[in-house]
Design a protein that fits this description.
With 223 residues, this protein is mainly beta. It has 2 helices and 12 strands. The strands form 2 sheets. Strands 1, 3, 6, 7, 10, 11 and 12 form a 7-stranded mixed β-sheet that branches. A hairpin with a 4-residue loop joins strand 10 and strand 11. The protein is globular and about 45 Å long.
């Protein structure tokens, strides 16, 4: 007597053609002060407003929330500059960091064949997730788990804030066990409105941990 068992394996692999993002080396000294003058010639990327979570009725357009960012590096640091347009900056130091307006930068500096397939596991152990609120005083989640020397600055603007982040290049070298050539970047913004009652999450590409994750999204390559 034989018993037959039918085995069905299902796996979804999302694929979307993406431009090859390049990161250039700056010859100018970068001072973290939230002032983006040094970034004028950097390649600016606009975050697609369609990649967000939350009630569609809580997002009213680019004046409500819009995000642009750029990257560059020097011999000391990898830099990310982010310009956030937000008509209501919500800061509440009596609640959790993720229950107020906050920016998250995900950086997976492991070799490409690993980082491109990252599905979100190993946060701040195998890859870096930098979450900070929009308080002028730096308030960062799990700061002691981040690479030594990681820092950021915020500057308020008429229509939102600018954020500058620096991550030591030595960290990226260490992750790749050689002179670095690429990394994977994720950008996320928690936007709270109506004094914290409404929340939307705005992604550059879908979250690495979501079923909508696109393998290889957010990859940057050194020029």
């Amino acid at each position: 007597m034989s018993i037959r068992t039918d085995l069905t394996l299902k796996n979804t692999f999302n694929f979307v053609p993406m431009p090859k993002q390049k990161i250039g080396k700056t010859k100018k000294k970068v001072k973290l002060d939230g002032n983006l003058k040094v970034w004028k010639r950097a390649n600016c990327i606009t975050v697609d407003s369609k990649n967000f979570k939350g009630s569609p009725f809580n997002y009213t357009g680019v004046k409500d929330c819009a995000i642009k960012f750029a990257t560059m590096y020097d011999d000391t640091n990898l830099y990310v500059a982010i310009k956030i347009t937000d008509d209501e900056i919500y800061v509440n130091n009596k609640t959790a960091l993720w229950q107020q307006d906050a920016i998250i930068v995900g950086l997976d500096a492991r070799p490409e064949h690993i980082s491109s397939m990252n599905k979100g596991s190993g946060r701040n152990r195998e890859w870096m997730a930098y979450l900070r609120t929009l308080e002028e005083k730096e308030t960062v989640l799990e700061k002691d788990l981040l690479p030594n020397g990681t820092r950021s600055e915020i500057k308020k603007t008429l229509d939102g804030v600018t954020v500058e982040l620096a991550v030591p290049i030595s960290y990226i070298h260490k992750q790749q066990n050689k002179s670095w050539s690429n990394f994977r970047l994720g950008i996320l913004y928690y936007d709270f409105d109506d004094n914290g009652e409404k929340r939307t999450e705005h992604f550059w590409y879908p979250s690495w941990s979501a079923k909508e994750n696109i393998p290889g999204s957010g990859m940057f390559f050194k020029e």
